[in-house]
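Request:
You are asked to prepare a plain-text protein record giving the amino acid sequence and the backbone structure tokens, at your earliest convenience.
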Amino acid sequence: MTYQECKEMVSRPGKFEGEQAWCPHFWDASLDGADDDISVSDDFGYVMMRVTPEDVALFPDLAGTECVYLSEDSQGFVSCHECTQAEWDYFVEENTPDSTDE
């Protein structure tokens, strides 16, 4: 997905209306099954993804951003937010099965 395609998606009514241009890019990647080391999801449909150098090359405004947080509401609209390393660590800890629970 190109920057221009993403920009168009957020500028018209629909799932990504009013979001940052990078939102459809990460949503698409999450649906494609991104690697576990860069993507974590929970039981409620929330997804957190690491921002890679390739992502920053496509979306320079993400420079310095550790990760992004994505969620879809009951009407199918997607929200995207930048997040910190501490938020990533907490999300991973809360959504990784504990081997002692087996």
Observations:
- The chain has one domain: 3-96.
- Helices lie at 3-11, 22-31, 53-58, 85-94.
